[in-house]
Amino acid sequence: AATADGVVRWDLDTLTPMVYTTDHGLPSGGAAFVEAGLDGSVWAGGEGWIARFDSALTTFSVPVDHPLHQVAVGPDGTVWAAFETGRLGRFDGSEWQMLDAPAFAESQGPWASELAVAPDGTLWVGLSDESMGDPESSNVSRGVASFDGSAWTVYTAADGFPPRVGNLIAVAPDGTVWAGAAGSVGSDGSSVSGGGAASFDGTVWTGYTVADGLPSNDVDVMVGADGSVWAINVWGDGVARFDGTAWILHPDVNGFGVVDADGTFWVPSEEAGPVVEIV
Questions:
Q1: Per residue in 66-107, pLDDT tens?
Q2: How large is the average pLDDT for residues 235-250?
Q3: Is the pLDDT of residue 138 over 50?
Q4: Which of the 8 DSSP states describes residue 120?
Q5: What is the predicted pLDDT for the residue at 67?
Q6: Which sign does the torsion angle of CA 243, 215, 251, 9 carry?
Q7: Are 198 and 205 in contact (CB under 8 A)?
């Protein structure tokens, strides 16, 4: 877990935490994210730095002229990072390679809401409101984009992508791409609900909403290493698990959590005591 004071690692056998702070070599300012790679490495980062946790803790700098936002780790251990002004970074463990994302070059702020890497190494990007148009319009599809290492593909409503979905992204072990929606708020304070979730089998996008069993149309989608798929209400209670055909709804479960390698969904408790797990 990334915290304002550092990084916490729990030993699930003993249920004891280990807290990494500046005393262990982390820069000051706390951590903004934690991402794990299939090779077992764990990456954390904050303002101007990233660090790898494996047999030792190693800290690296990031390009100072490009504020870092979203990060994902590929199956080969490569770290991908979205920077402002339509820039994409690739870190091989020793040096950064900065790449252009031409379709988003005009974006003046964060253009990527979330990154995920497919088993074949393709990078998938959930696009932010600013990169796709007017966030006040309920007809705007945020869309998603993929990068195969040389070329970009942007998926929008014209490609059958459901409206108001796409700023959240995840990829299952079988390569199925899942997108979610966090909704948006207009300049006048009015809210625009998201469009639910969508899956991509490499050819066709399929959309899901509350009518299909989702807890909300504002959902993040998380996948486990076992292929399990969860939709989580990003604004409140409610999670649902996809059984391959239908969504199994748990309406009273707090939607803030994480899926482990066995497909169990872990939820932090709001009170002192054990966390809740759904198997």
A1: 667 789 999 888 999 988 777 889 999 889 998 887 667 666
A2: 91
A3: no
A4: T
A5: 60
A6: positive
A7: yes
- How far is the C-alpha of 20 from the C-alpha of 141, rounded, in Å? 40
Report the chain's C-alpha Rg in angstroms: 18
CB 222 within 8 A of CB 230: yes
Q: Are 275 and 267 in contact (CB under 8 A)?
A: yes
Its sign, for the CA torsion 153, 139, 222, 240, is negative
Copy the structure tokens of residue 201. Answer: 């089998």
Percent share of the chain, pLDDT over 90: 37
Residue 144 · residue 178 · CB < 8 Å: no
What tokens does 81 get? 């990072």
Tell me which residue has tokens 């979203």.
70
Q: How many CB atoms lie within 10 A of CB 35?
A: 20
Helix ranges, 88-175 (H): 129-132
Q: Is 11 helix (H, G, I), strand (E, B) or coil?
A: strand
d(CA 211, CA 246): 11
Question: How many Å apart are CA 184 and CA 201, to the nearest integer?
Answer: 27
**pLDDT for res 186:** 60
Handedness of CA 142, 177, 231, 32 (dihedral sign): negative
Q: Which residue has the tokens 């990031």?
A: 62
Compute the mean pLDDT over every residue in the chain, rounded to the nearest whole number. 83
